[in-house]
């Protein structure tokens, strides 16, 4: 069934112009922020424009989340790649990053001019705390979906402890934790399969 | 030796890019550690301010590195830091996407998905603690974090509304505090 459907899906997929792709991701990159990007991309690309279907989007979202890289950028890359290959990926990523980069530097410019004022630092402190709140919401959501066994929470807690509390550098911790964690998951998947 | 500062930016942020499992938020511990503790490019206060700006600005919040790069080496530094944080991870994503699509039922793919998730969760929580710590968060900041967390989970409040509300509340508090002090 799947094998029969797959080529048909590709054939049905509309041919999207690179300019349309660029403009869509410029809009997404400048209008969305703070962890809400996924849902906005879904609303635009799947629901409104119908460029890719739900299943392809969700599969891309998973890979965008698990692989290294900022999720919004990875999703843009995935959608662009699906629609127009390498050129599409480059255009979508450019659209997601460059306008937002300019806006961030504009805000940074204002910060340079007014950052010495106590009120600016005070309000930014509040926004940082709010940003942490938004991050934690997302982290709790992901944590709830973790498989309920002994090892998974133990790995999460260990990584949190050594990086967050003991302040070990991230790179060596990740270099050790990722293979160990994947190997454990692999053993469990094998056991489940047999 | 200003050229070496540009090189340092690239050498610091490229490995972070490759290791940023779990998205931009998982990179916050390492960015703070490198920029504040190791290289002394920023103070804790500036780091907190930059974090807030990057979260309040549209687009990926990983663009905090653009602000750090700008501080270290001007516009060129901002561009270099941004490329360093996005290019390596994008190459990995590009290379893996096709394989990922083709191997939906693969045990290896499932193991990678399951194995990376707890590492990402651990890093994201670590990032939260480190930002609160760098901000010398008092009761007010912790209450703000908790309130946002509850509001975001319970209601569909938009991020714009939330940022506006928090900024307004803090402005009001600052005004009241100034009057009483």
Describe the overall structure.
With 194 residues, chain A is mostly helical. Helix content of chain A is 82%, strand content 0%. Residues 1-8 of chain A have low confidence and may be disordered. Chain B has 181 residues and is mainly alpha-helical. Chain B folds into two domains: 2-137, no CATH class; 138-181. Chain B contains seven helices and no strands. In chain B, helix 1 (2-18) runs parallel beside helix 4. Chain B starts with a helix and ends with a helix. Chains A and B meet through helix 2, helix 4, helix 5, helix 6 and helix 7 of A and helix 1, helix 2, helix 3, helix 4 and helix 5 of B.
Q: Please work out how many helical segments of chain A DSSP would assign.
A: 8
- Unreliable runs of chain B, pLDDT <50, ≥5 residues? none
Helix content of chain A: over 70%
Q: Between the first and last Cα atoms of chain A, what is the distance in angstroms?
A: 25 Å
Mean pLDDT of chain A: 84
Radius of gyration of chain A: 20 Å
**Total discrete domains of chain B:** 2
Number of strands of chain A: 0
Could you tell me the strand content of chain A as a percent range? under 5%
User: How would you characterize the largest beta sheet of chain B?
Assistant: none
Oligomer description: heterodimer
Number-wise, the strands of chain B total 0
Which class do the helix and strand fractions of chain A yield? mainly alpha
Major beta sheet summary of chain A: none
Domain module count of chain A: 3
| SSE order of chain B | HHHHHHH
Structural class of chain B: mainly alpha
> Low-confidence parts of chain A lasting 5 or more residues at pLDDT below 50?
1-8
Q: Which of globular, elongated, flat, extended, rod-shaped describes the shape of chain A?
A: flat
Characteristic key phrases:
heterodimer, A: 194 residues, mainly alpha, 3 domains, 8 helices, flat, disordered N terminus, B: 181 residues, 2 domains, 7 helices, 0% strand
Offer a quick outline of the entry.
The complex is a heterodimer of chains A (194) and B (181). Chain A is an all-alpha fold and 194 residues long.
């Amino acid at each position: 069934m799947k094998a029969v459907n797959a080529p048909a899906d590709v054939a049905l997929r509309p041919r999207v112009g690179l300019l349309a792709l660029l403009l869509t991701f410029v809009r997404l990159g400048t209008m969305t922020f703070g962890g809400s990007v996924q849902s906005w991309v879904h609303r635009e690309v799947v629901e409104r424009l119908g460029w890719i279907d739900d299943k392809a989007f969700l599969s891309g979202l998973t890979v965008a989340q698990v692989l290294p890289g900022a999720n919004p950028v990875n999703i843009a890359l995935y959608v662009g790649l699906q629609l127009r290959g390498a050129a599409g990926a480059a255009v979508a990523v450019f659209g997601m990053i460059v306008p937002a980069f300019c806006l961030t530097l504009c805000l940074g410019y204002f910060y340079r001019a007014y950052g010495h004022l106590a009120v600016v630092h005070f309000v930014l402190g509040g926004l940082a705390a709010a940003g942490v709140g938004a991050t934690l919401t997302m982290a709790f959501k992901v944590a709830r979906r973790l498989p309920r066994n002994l090892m998974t929470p133990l790995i999460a807690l260990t990584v949190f402890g050594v990086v967050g509390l003991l302040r070990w550098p991230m790179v060596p911790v990740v270099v050790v934790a990722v293979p160990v964690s994947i190997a454990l998951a692999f053993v469990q998947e094998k056991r489940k399969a047999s | 030796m200003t050229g070496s500062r540009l090189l340092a930016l690239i050498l610091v942020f490229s490995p972070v890019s490759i290791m940023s499992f779990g998205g931009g938020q998982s990179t916050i511990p390492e960015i703070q550690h490198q920029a504040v503790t190791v290289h002394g490019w920023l103070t804790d206060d500036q780091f907190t301010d930059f974090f807030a700006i990057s979260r309040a600005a549209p687009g990926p919040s990983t663009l905090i590195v653009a602000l750090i790069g700008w501080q270290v080496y001007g516009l060129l530094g901002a561009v270099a830091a941004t490329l360093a944080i996005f290019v390596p991870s994008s190459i990995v994503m590009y290379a893996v996407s096709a394989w990922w699509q083709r191997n939906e039922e693969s045990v290896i793919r499932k193991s990678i998905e399951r194995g990376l998730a707890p590492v990402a969760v651990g890093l994201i929580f670590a990032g939260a603690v480190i930002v609160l710590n760098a901000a010398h968060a008092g009761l007010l900041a912790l209450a703000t974090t908790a309130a946002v967390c509850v509001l975001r989970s319970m209601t569909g409040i938009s991020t714009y509304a939330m940022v506006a509300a928090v900024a307004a509340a803090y402005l009001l508090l600052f005004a009241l505090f100034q009057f009483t002090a």
